[in-house]
């Protein structure tokens, strides 16, 4: 900050009187606390008061009028307060200039767009509004304007997650404001890190990054909160496969071996969130997350669409990583290795990969014995054999209530429905059906889902949904979440079709809405019609997920909404305010696109 | 054509639910026979059956034939929202529909009766000896209460505030009740405030002493009332407990006709009571006016509706006090129809360009009425700077005034003013710091929102 100084000659004329009054007031306060009974002498106070112009005369007068000490004390109080309070005048003093407002790096919203945001806000719940604007703005590399930002900051001040979501959409001026208003943001990590490039510029920065830049990035990365990390990673949507991989390996190269464990969550996050056009690289790398964080959720492996070059590169990288000194990292890499071993193209397969697949198949024979054609009744491994241990399977209650069942779950997850299908000589969808109906159906549910998602097999996923999500809203949400994070447009479309078979929860779940939106999926005309029919049912009309879904409706969906609106007006029915907000939403999205 | 803004229409809503419902029906297809005159707006809302919706712009007041008792209902709000967006839908007509005319006549008769009653009341006061005797008796009661209060305060200081804070509340409550018996409710309220502050917060001693000082100066002013100007005595009496009804003020208060810019309005909600605080400034007179209103969830008649920040209304105000023209009541009719977007350029003429002169002027005013706690201040060409981690204003002479950002978040100031000079309106409670209420920059008036702002 610049410091401006002025000559200290501009002191108030009555500074001496003010000082005397202040001293008198201090003495009066002390006396007031303990009482006149314990502080009989008011002379000290009166000496100060006498220094105030006219003070001596007033004191004399009040002494003559006052009948006792109490009254005299209050007269003195009035004199001191009057001299103190009413003589205060501003003075020229030192001050610090505010820092300069930085230039904006994102295009500002037009007045019409701002108006559209207001109109949408009037038609939806606050949380939906936040979801809509963050999705729209982040997706189009725009910032929240100050006038919209601050009410959101104040609203979510005590809710860290949505607040951080808002803060990742700061304009430069918005950031300037928040840095100056200390009362608003106590968590400075929630604000952009000035040492790092803004997410808007991140891709350009990555393209030119050198070793020093990687070091800077890695130095600050762990301190970024999850929302900021996601914002950076999401910008990689604009990047190509090689750049995404470069981002990971660049960081890997500058991190000390012992510190690489900390890098894995970043890699995993990157893989979770980076969207097409970098699906292959992210898909491959996403498997790194498996069990790294000790989370119980299932992490899909999106290897099937990986291109050969990247699979090969990753295979080499993984083999190299295995030589790391950290046993934990080696353990963490195992599932990925088995996955890669199965996915390697014929010409890249080597002894290592064949041995790994063979070891898996042997264990399948033990615990998924064939019972006739395409059928099996799984057995839970009663003990952790050295063979199972070599596969990386552990004794843990993380996967199932029974440790034995947990071993089976790990084995199925590791092998995946594809390998099991090859082994049972049936389709992946049939494997799902068979295992879902088995005695361990419930325990195997997450493992099967992970495998379906990993293999990007819509038929298998559909089969899973039929068995596990019928009239189960929670399960529908789980699928929605996973498809959102790791799925494809094709998979999401398949899920939408499930609406036809009575799985309405799927279509109308909030997570499904996120799924479609995150995947940038525009529904086909037919699917739009299915969606609209579901959503316009009274019980769903005010439902939260509507917003996410509407973002993805194609022009046919818009027509259907218009028709519904017109019909309601013609019939004299009340038109829900959301519907007009939808139309505004479409217009705003189109305007941001352009 | 009707001059009603959507913001203004929305501000008339009694609650968020009604507003939301009104938005959904504010469509041309849902209304017919929409009309307006200088006095009123009307329309027929189509629903399960037709409802006649009327708005009397004087007041404003509302009537609807629907069964909802909380007014304005969704039909009236929908009508207002609709014509604020599409004023061309309303046809100008000097002859209102039958039901409306009857209602307006009834309202006029009621208003007239109120004025006559107030006039008669004042006439009676002058003429009736019994009234004079009652007034004298009240003065005597108040005098007794004041003397007891003075002794009570002396006792407090003899024992010490520390001791007083440890004592049970009985003696304080007893004194407060005594003051209410003595018809000095204003003094009782101030005493209760002091009692509540005892031992609370790090600066409680200084806070209590300031309040006791203000109370004592009021006592001394009462004692010396015979030497003081009658206008000031009126103010002192009001402070002590003599109340004035709104009708009395409208009839007897100091009138001021002007174009009033609505600077800002703040509504708080405490103990089931809504308290409204509106500040305006006159374009020609440069005088400030503060309008206070009170209401509850069940009765919001005491709250002023339909004013939009940054807009100006033309009309008459009646000030409560002739000594200190600040608190006022709106006497203007047809506020809605006269509402026009203000040209704010004149605001500069009434603003101080020197902080020191402005504060000096403020301190002089404070000396005239030391117990008043809210002092408006309008400063121009001031910039935001930092003074020891606090936001402050600096003028061209490098003089500083600290800003109090507890009630209004600093970001609002930063967002609207940035580093550029602006004209700022605020309220000072102590002559030292300023609570910002709004600012003018680039011909745009920004009214700040308050952290404790309540919505109806």
Automatic annotation (TrEMBL), chain A:
Organism: Parathalassolituus penaei
InterPro entries reported for this sequence: DUF5691 (IPR043746)
Protein known as: Uncharacterized protein
Automatic annotation (TrEMBL), chain B:
Cited InterPro entries: Znf_SWIM (IPR007527)
GO function term, MF aspect, one: zinc ion binding
Domain SWIM-type, first and last residues per copy: 51-84
Chaperone is among the record's keywords: no
Pfam families hit by this protein: SWIM (PF04434)
Record's signal peptide: none
Domain of life: Bacteria
Coiled coil stretches, renumbered: 106-138
Keywords of this entry: Coiled coil, Metal-binding, Zinc, Zinc-finger
Name under which the protein is recorded: SWIM zinc finger family protein
Organism of provenance: Parathalassolituus penaei
């Amino acid at each position: 900050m610049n410091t401006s100084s002025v000559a200290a000659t501009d002191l108030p004329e009555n500074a001496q009187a003010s000082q005397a009054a202040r001293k008198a007031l201090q003495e009066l306060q002390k006396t007031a606390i303990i009482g006149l009974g314990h502080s009989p002498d008011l002379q000290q106070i009166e000496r100060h008061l006498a220094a105030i112009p006219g003070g001596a005369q007033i004191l004399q007068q009040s002494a003559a009028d006052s009948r006792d000490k109490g009254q005299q004390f209050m007269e003195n109080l009035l004199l001191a307060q009057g001299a103190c309070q009413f003589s205060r005048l501003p003075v020229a003093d030192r001050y610090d200039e505010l820092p300069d407002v930085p230039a904006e790096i994102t295009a500002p919203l037009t007045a019409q767009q701002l108006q559209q945001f207001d109109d949408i806000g009037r038609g939806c719940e606050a949380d939906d509004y936040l979801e809509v604007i963050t999705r729209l703005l982040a997706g189009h590399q725009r910032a929240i304007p100050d006038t919209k930002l601050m009410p959101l900051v104040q609203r979510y001040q005590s809710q860290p997650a949505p607040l951080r979501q808002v803060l990742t959409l700061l304009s430069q001026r918005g950031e300037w404001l928040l840095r100056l208003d200390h009362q608003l943001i106590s968590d400075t990590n929630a604000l952009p890190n000035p040492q790092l490039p803004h997410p808007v510029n991140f891709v350009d920065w990555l393209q030119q990054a050198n070793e020093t830049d990687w070091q800077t990035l890695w130095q600050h990365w762990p301190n970024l909160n999850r929302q900021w990390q996601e914002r950076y990673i999401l910008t990689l949507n604009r990047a190509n496969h090689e750049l995404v991989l470069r981002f990971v390996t660049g960081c890997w190269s500058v991190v000390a071996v012992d510190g690489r464990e900390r890098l894995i969550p970043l890699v995993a996050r990157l893989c979770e969130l980076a969207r097409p056009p970098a699906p292959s690289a992210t898909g491959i790398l996403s498997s790194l997350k498996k069990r790294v964080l000790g989370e119980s959720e299932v992490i899909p492996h999106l290897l099937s669409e990986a291109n050969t070059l990247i699979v090969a590169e990753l295979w080499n990288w993984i083999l190299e990583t295995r030589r790391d000194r950290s046993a934990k990292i080696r353990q963490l890499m195992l599932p990925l290795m088995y996955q890669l071993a199965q996915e390697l193209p014929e010409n890249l397969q080597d002894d290592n990969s064949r041995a790994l697949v063979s070891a898996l198949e042997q264990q399948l024979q033990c615990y998924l014995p064939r019972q006739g054609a395409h059928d099996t009744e799984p057995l839970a491994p009663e003990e952790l054999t050295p063979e199972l241990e070599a596969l990386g399977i552990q004794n843990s209650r993380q996967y199932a209530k029974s440790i034995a069942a947990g071993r089976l779950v790990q084995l199925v997850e590791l092998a995946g429905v594809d390998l099991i299908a090859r082994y049972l000589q049936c389709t992946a969808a049939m494997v799902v059906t068979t295992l879902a109906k088995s005695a361990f159906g419930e325990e195997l549910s997450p493992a099967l889902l992970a495998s379906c998602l990993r293999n990007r097999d819509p038929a298998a996923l559909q089969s899973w949904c039929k068995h596990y999500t019928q009239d189960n809203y929670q399960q529908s949400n789980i699928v929605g979440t996973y498809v959102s994070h790791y799925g494809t447009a094709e998979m999401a479309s398949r899920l939408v079709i499930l609406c036809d078979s009575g799985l309405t929860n799927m279509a109308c779940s909030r997570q499904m809405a996120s799924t479609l939106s995150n995947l940038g999926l525009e529904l086909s005309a037919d699917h739009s019609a299915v969606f609209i029919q579901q959503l316009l049912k009274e019980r769903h009309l005010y439902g939260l997920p509507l917003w996410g879904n509407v973002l993805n409706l194609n022009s046919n969906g818009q027509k259907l909404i218009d028709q519904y609106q017109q019909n309601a007006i013609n019939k004299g029915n009340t038109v829900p305010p959301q519907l007009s907000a939808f139309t505004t939403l479409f217009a705003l999205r189109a305007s941001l696109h352009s | 054509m009707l001059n009603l803004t959507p913001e203004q229409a929305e501000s008339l809503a009694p609650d968020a639910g009604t507003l939301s419902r009104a938005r959904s029906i504010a469509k041309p297809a849902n209304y017919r026979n929409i009309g307006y005159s200088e006095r009123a707006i009307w329309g027929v809302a189509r629903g399960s059956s037709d409802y006649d919706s009327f708005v009397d712009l004087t007041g404003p007041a509302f009537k609807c034939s629907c069964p909802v008792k909380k007014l304005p209902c969704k039909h009236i709000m929908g009508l207002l929202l609709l014509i604020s967006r599409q004023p061309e839908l309303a046809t100008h007509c000097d002859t209102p529909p039958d039901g409306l005319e009857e209602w307006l006549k009834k309202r006029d008769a009621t208003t007239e009766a109120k004025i006559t009653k107030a006039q008669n009341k004042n006439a009676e006061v002058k003429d009736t000896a019994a009234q004079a005797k009652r007034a004298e008796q009240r003065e005597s009661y108040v005098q007794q209460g004041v003397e007891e209060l003075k002794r009570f305060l002396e006792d407090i200081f003899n024992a010490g505030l520390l001791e007083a804070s440890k004592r049970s509340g009985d003696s304080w409550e007893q004194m407060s009740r005594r003051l209410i018996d003595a018809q000095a409710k204003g003094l009782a309220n101030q005493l209760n405030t002091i009692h509540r502050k005892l031992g609370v917060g790090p600066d409680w001693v200084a806070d209590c002493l300031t309040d006791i000082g203000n109370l004592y100066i009021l006592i001394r002013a009462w004692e010396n009332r015979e030497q003081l100007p009658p206008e000031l005595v009126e103010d002192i009496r009001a402070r002590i407990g003599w109340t004035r009804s709104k009708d009395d003020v409208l009839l007897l208060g100091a009138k001021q006709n002007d174009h009033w810019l609505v600077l800002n309005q703040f509504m708080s909600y405490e103990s089931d009571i809504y308290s409204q605080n509106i500040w305006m400034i006159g374009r020609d007179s440069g005088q400030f006016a503060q309008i206070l209103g009170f209401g509850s969830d069940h009765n919001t008649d005491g709250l002023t509706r339909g004013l939009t920040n940054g807009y100006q209304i033309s009309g008459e105000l009646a000030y409560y006090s002739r000594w200190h023209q600040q608190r006022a009541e709106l006497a203007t009719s047809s506020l809605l129809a006269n509402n026009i977007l203000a040209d704010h350029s004149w605001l500069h003429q009434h603003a101080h360009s020197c902080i020191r002169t402005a504060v000096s002027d403020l301190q002089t005013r404070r000396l005239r009425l030391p117990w008043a706690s809210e002092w408006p201040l309008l400063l121009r060409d001031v910039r935001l700077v930092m003074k020891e981690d606090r936001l402050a204003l600096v003028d061209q002479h490098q003089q500083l005034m600290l800003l109090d950002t507890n009630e209004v978040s600093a970001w609002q100031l930063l967002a609207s003013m940035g580093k550029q000079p602006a004209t700022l309106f605020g309220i000072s409670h102590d002559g030292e710091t300023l609570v910002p209420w709004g600012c003018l920059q680039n011909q745009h008036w920004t009214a700040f929102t308050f952290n404790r702002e309540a919505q109806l």
